Amino acid sequence: MSSEIYLAGGCFWGSEKYLSLINGVENTQVGYANGNTINPTYQEVCYNNTGHAETVKVVYDPETIRLDLLLDLFYESIDPTAVNRQGGDIGEQYRTGIYYIEEKDLPVIRDSINKLQQRYEKPIAIEVEPLRNFSPAEEYHQRYLEKNPNGYCHIKPELFKKAEKANL
């Protein structure tokens, strides 16, 4: 039985590739989450203050990877203290977030954030909310870095290799 979690980690191109490499992740899809509109376009998210975060829908097998381990790996790919930015990307759509659909996931998420906070002096900026809405991004954004291997990414290449070896 698969589970879902929605993770916002800055530009969704790199986050999607990184998360898709983790053993136990069955499927990923990039899109826009928890904004004020339904089915926004990329242009609207960038320029019309829709309130969406670039987000990756992650479908995973909890028998292969537990949510707490998946979140620990996610944290390695972001600066969890940055507000509305990751790497060179700045703006509300690049905020970090964990959006859940199963209420049973919330204690695991909160515990994970509390453990993460112990490693930082600055406050953790990852928003944790129930998923209010999610709209898939345009097709050209899906698996973008597979289609464009030299495309921009805020995640260091060695982290992709680490993701492939995690949880084996």
Secondary structure layout:
Layout: E1 3-9, H1 12-20, E2 25-33, H2 42-47, E3 53-60, H3 67-76, E4 85-86, E5 89-90, E6 96-100, H4 105-117, E7 127-130, E8 134-136, H5 144-147, H6 157-165
Parallel strand pairs: 6-7
Antiparallel strand pairs: 1-3, 1-6, 2-3, 2-8, 4-5
Helix pairs in contact: 3-4
Overall outline: globular
Summarize the main sheet. Answer: 6 strands, mixed
Cα distance, first to last residue? 20 Å
Tally of domains: 1
Would you identify the CATH H-level superfamily? Answer: Peptide methionine sulphoxide reductase MsrA
Q: What's the total count of β strands?
A: 8
- Spans of at least 5 consecutive residues whose pLDDT stays below 50 are none
Spell the H/E element sequence.
Answer: EHEHEHEEEHEEHH
What is the overall pLDDT average?
A: 96
CATH uppermost class: Alpha Beta
Q: Structural class given helices, strands, pairing?
A: alpha+beta
Classify the fold: give the CATH topology.
Answer: Peptide Methionine Sulfoxide Reductase, Chain A
Strand arrangement, largest sheet? 7-6-1-3-2-8
State the share of residues found in helices, binned by percent: 25-40%
Helix segment tally: 6
Strand content: 15-25%
Radius of gyration: 15 Å
- Can you tell me the CATH architecture? 2-Layer Sandwich
